[in-house]
Every structure is written in structure tokens, then in C-alpha cells.
Write a structure and sequence with these properties.
Elements (H helix, E strand, L loop, with lengths): L23 E3 L7 E2 L22 E3 L2 E10 L2 E8 L6 E3 L4 E5 L4 E3 L16 E5 L8 E6 L3 H6 L3 E10 L4 E5 L8 E5 L6 E6 L3 E3 L1 E4 L3 E12 L5 E12 L5 H6 L16 E2 L8 H47 L1
Parallel strand pairs: 2-14, 3-7, 4-10, 7-18
Antiparallel strand pairs: 1-11, 4-5, 5-6, 8-9, 9-16, 10-15, 11-14, 11-17, 12-13, 12-16, 17-18, 18-19
Length: about 325
């Protein structure tokens, strides 16, 4: 199976979301991003700077699809790169439905190496494979938009924030038939699971869904830029798993993923060091309040000292008068 070489970089990802809906998996702790290993040949591609942003809804059931960061109106965001037609386009995740058809059904092998799936051997699950199957959508990610490559410092961190769906989602890599699987995202885990993608990376993985239905998958793309700025964007991917799952239902579904305690609501296109919106204003107000308090204390001390000096002067004058009358 395929993957891109990526050098492990010690980075941390802030705890972002805590989901209260029973079907939403929360990923809320800090963890060093995983990194993909050596790919097999066949993933070479380049992305033109002028590829358009398509409008209108689209259902993507077969062919080559990536998620990836891009700038739209000078704003960092995460989009879907649709290569299912002769002329590739970018799509807004709100308008793109990833259809995982019944052609994706596979049987879980009787092998302890796949215990991380949390599914009994012999059970049928839906698999978007790492190696392309022409009957199933082929989903990966890239960091190949020309402006992205020019502006990011070394790479991008992709983090799963939460999943809403009737079953679990697991994303993993596997290099060759005998290599051990490398889990990247497991919605059954309660820890943050970022992974690191180098600049000019194009990678595909296995996406395993344990039950048919609508899945909403919240993903964050964050990066440090060469100018020292930090950028972050959070978008929701929509999956219709199974032939009978309604596209209308999938487009109408809402994630309902609230922020974690103490966090500001999700801003899907934020250009800050992963701090909640409004943090700078709050810190400024706190600083001003602290300064005002210090000034008030200083004024009180000056008044007290002034009164003390005046009292001492009065006592000295009274003593001088007393001495003169003797």
C-alpha cells in the first residue's frame, strides 16, 4: 500500500473539541504527529495554480480525490481536490459528498495485526483502499497547491477533531503486503491524533467504516508559514457509506460538534497560533485592568505617604513653638 516519506517533526496540536453527542468521538489531548513512511510508485502529480474552485453540489463515488489546504481569497482553508474528471477542480467540503458504495465492502482478516480496527474477524466493513479500486472513490490528501508550497514552513499537520456517524472510522497506512499497518486516525480513541504531511506530499490511505450511513468527519489543517505566521482551518468532510444511504440526508446533516470547555466556538478559517478567537482582546483587557489596579494602589500609597509627611511637619512646628515659649 502507498504512502509518502515524511520526516517526523516534534509538534503538538492543541486539544480542540469535546463532543457531547453519543455518536461523536472526541479527540482532546496533545500528541506528537505521526508521519507517513516510504510510498510505492505511482502517486506523482502536480497541481496547477489556476485550477478553479467549483460551485454546486457534487457526489464523488469513484476516481481520484484528495483533501488539502489551499488559499481562497487570500484565506487559508481546507478543500477537496476533485480529480475524477479530465480537468481537476477544488470543491468546498460542504458541497462535496464522498460516496463509499457497496463495492467497498471487504472482510476483516483473521490477523491480530488488524486488531486496532476494533472489529471481529470475518465481519464485513466498508474500505476506501490505499491502492486504487476503480469501483470505489480513492481518497487521500496532498500539500501540493503552489501557493501552499511557497508559503508553508516544511509541512502541514492534519488532525481529526471528531466523527459523527453510525459506526467507527479508522484511517491507516500500510507499506507493502507484509508491513505492519500504521493507524493514523481512530475515531474510537479519545486522544488527539494529528499527523504530519511534508510540503509537496501526495498520500493515500485506507479508510475503514464499520457500518453504513452518514458520517461527518471534522478535520483541521494547520501550519507554520515561512513569515512566522500560524494558520489553521477546520472543515467537515461528508461521507455517504453504502449504496442505500441518502445523499440528501448526508447534505442536510449537521455535525453539532461543540467546543471543548474553555474554548471559543470553532472558526473554520483562523489565522492565529491555534488560540481561540477573542483571546488577544481578552488578554489586552486583563492587562489594562491589571495596570489600572497597580495605578490605584500607587495613588493610595502616595496619599498615605503625603498625609504622613504632613502630620510629621505639623508635629515639628508644634514642637518648635513649644521650645520658643520656654
Amino acid at each position: 500500500m502507498t504512502a509518502e516519506r515524511a520526516r517526523r517533526r516534534p509538534r503538538t496540536t492543541t486539544a480542540i473539541l469535546r463532543c457531547t453527542v453519543a455518536t461523536v468521538i472526541v479527540l482532546a489531548t496533545t500528541q506528537t504527529p505521526a508521519a507517513a513512511q516510504e510510498p510505492t510508485p505511482g502517486l506523482g502529480q502536480s497541481i496547477a495554480a489556476d485550477q478553479p474552485l467549483a460551485t454546486g453540489r457534487a457526489e464523488l463515488a469513484t476516481g481520484h480525490v484528495d483533501i488539502g489546504p489551499r488559499y481562497v481569497d487570500n484565506q487559508w482553508t481546507l478543500l477537496i481536490h476533485d480529480g475524477t474528471h479530465a480537468r481537476p477542480v477544488w470543491r468546498n467540503p460542504d458541497d462535496a459528498l464522498l460516496r463509499v458504495s457497496d463495492a467497498a465492502l471487504q472482510t476483516v482478516p483473521d490477523d491480530p495485526a488488524y486488531a486496532f480496527l476494533g472489529v471481529d474477524a470475518g465481519k464485513r466493513v466498508y474500505v476506501v483502499p490505499q491502492v486504487q479500486n476503480s469501483d470505489v472513490v480513492w481518497l487521500g490528501w496532498n500539500t501540493q497547491d503552489p501557493r501552499v508550497m511557497q508559503t508553508i514552513d516544511r509541512g502541514v499537520t492534519l488532525t481529526l477533531l471528531g466523527v459523527r456517524g453510525p459506526g467507527n472510522l479508522t484511517t491507516y497506512l500500510q507499506s507493502g503486503n507484509f508491513a505492519a499497518p500504521q493507524p493514523l486516525w481512530r475515531s474510537a480513541d479519545s486522544t488527539a491524533q494529528p499527523f504530519w504531511a511534508e510540503v509537496n506530499t501526495h498520500t493515500h490511505a485506507n479508510w475503514v467504516f464499520t457500518a453504513p450511513g452518514v458520517y461527518l468527519v471534522a478535520v483541521q489543517a494547520s501550519a507554520d508559514l515561512v513569515n512566522g505566521e500560524a494558520v489553521s482551518a477546520t472543515r467537515t468532510l461528508r461521507f455517504a457509506v453504502g449504496d442505500t444511504t441518502s445523499a440528501d440526508e448526508a447534505f442536510a446533516a449537521t455535525a453539532n460538534i461543540p467546543p471543548a470547555a474553555g474554548q471559543a466556538p470553532i472558526d473554520e478559517n483562523r489565522t492565529a497560533d491555534d488560540e481561540p478567537a477573542g483571546t488577544s482582546t481578552t488578554l489586552l483587557l486583563i492587562a489594562l485592568a491589571g495596570t489600572a489596579a497597580l495605578l490605584a494602589v500607587g495613588l493610595v500609597l502616595l496619599l498615605v505617604r503625603g498625609r504622613g509627611a504632613k502630620r510629621r511637619a505639623e508635629l515639628e512646628r508644634a514642637a518648635a513653638r513649644s521650645d520658643g515659649q520656654r
